[in-house]
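Students often ask why inverse folding is considered easier than folding. One informal answer: many sequences map to the same fold, so there is more than one right answer. In these notes we will look at a single instance of the problem. The structure comes first.
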């Protein structure tokens, strides 16, 4: 069996499923639902029907996009990869609000079964897509609804807990999602799987921005403008090799997220009512702030199901968004980093990015 799994490149591991597949799923979701939401909202604000149509089409294929991305991460053969489009559509549709989690679980199982039978028969063109689609869609009908219900309920529980205890839950959500964003896992996929919107989503945005903007500013001495852009608009994950060697360097952004989280949830009541994936994006392509903005204008399906409605943002809303996402992370993390350099906890070069 071990030899067969190795020959078929089936690796049952946390890295393959919890990091590679999850990260790829987030990319598939980004390239469909997220970018589609942005384009559609832009079209609505500019009254351009063409952009609205493009965004609607992109949003509609989020299930297939996630499943194909997962198959790609699992190194599926072409016949398996193409067949996963149907699996992703079924799992996302049957999973409802928890569709992304259903797609993740079901696409992994379908892809591995498809890989197992791929090129094993003389009628591969029938067997491989047949096995992949039959297993995937059957699982979608069987387990996607309860998976979706469980994920949605857990996300709702977090959202309600944050609403009831905005200070402590604001800290917890902000810190944990910010840490997840910097780890080699996908905070965007986690937020999407949990349907993290509302006040909890706003705290998650705060935590992600604290890490991305924070690391970008704190490491400016070593990385200059290139590092500022690559971390501030790209990902703080670039710092992971340094954090493995010098874990204390993580303290400034964590402290910053513990401050900006409750400021977002208690002071400005910042809510993420756009697509849930935006909650875990931070300033990556400015997707976090853009998600808050699109949620003001047109709440996403998950947020709308929880009672969110379109609003006309006030000056205080805009001030809160800019402060939480940009200004406070830059100032606070920069200050914490400066203090830690002064006391010798962070030394010159500790935050230098690999060339």
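Output (designed amino acids):
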């Amino acid at each position: 069996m071990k030899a067969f799994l190795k020959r078929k490149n089936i690796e049952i591991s946390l890295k393959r499923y919890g990091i590679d597949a999850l990260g790829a799923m987030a990319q598939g979701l980004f390239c469909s639902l997220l970018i589609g939401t942005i384009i559609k909202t832009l079209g609505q604000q500019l009254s351009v029907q063409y952009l609205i149509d493009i965004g609607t089409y992109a949003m509609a294929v989020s299930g297939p996009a996630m499943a194909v991305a997962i198959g790609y991460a699992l190194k599926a053969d072409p016949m398996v990869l193409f067949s996963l489009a149907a699996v992703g559509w079924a799992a996302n549709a049957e999973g409802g609000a928890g569709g992304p989690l259903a797609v993740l679980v079901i696409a992994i199982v379908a892809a591995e079964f498809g890989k197992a039978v791929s090129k094993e028969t003389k009628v591969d063109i029938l067997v491989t897509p047949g096995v992949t689609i039959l297993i995937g869609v059957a699982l979608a009908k069987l387990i996607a609804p309860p998976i979706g219900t469980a994920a949605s309920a857990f996300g709702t529980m977090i959202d309600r807990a944050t609403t009831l205890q905005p200070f402590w839950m604001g800290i917890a959500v902000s810190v944990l999602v910010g840490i997840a964003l910097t780890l080699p896992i996908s905070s965007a996929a986690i937020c999407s799987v949990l349907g993290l919107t509302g006040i909890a989503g706003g705290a998650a945005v705060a935590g992600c921005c604290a890490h991305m903007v924070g690391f970008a500013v704190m490491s400016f001495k070593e990385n200059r403008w290139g590092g500022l852009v690559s971390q501030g608009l790209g990902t703080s994950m670039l710092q992971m090799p340094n954090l493995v060697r010098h874990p204390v360097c993580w303290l400034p952004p964590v402290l910053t997220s513990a401050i900006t989280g409750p400021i977002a949830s208690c002071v400005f009541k910042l809510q993420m009512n756009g697509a849930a994936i935006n909650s875990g994006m931070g300033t990556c392509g400015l997707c976090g702030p853009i998600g808050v903005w699109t949620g003001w204008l047109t709440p996403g399906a998950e947020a709308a199901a929880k009672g969110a409605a379109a609003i006309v943002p006030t000056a205080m809303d805009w001030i809160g968004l800019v402060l939480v996402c940009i200004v406070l992370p830059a100032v606070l993390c920069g200050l914490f980093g400066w203090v830690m350099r002064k006391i010798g906890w962070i030394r010159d070069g500790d935050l230098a990015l690999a060339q």
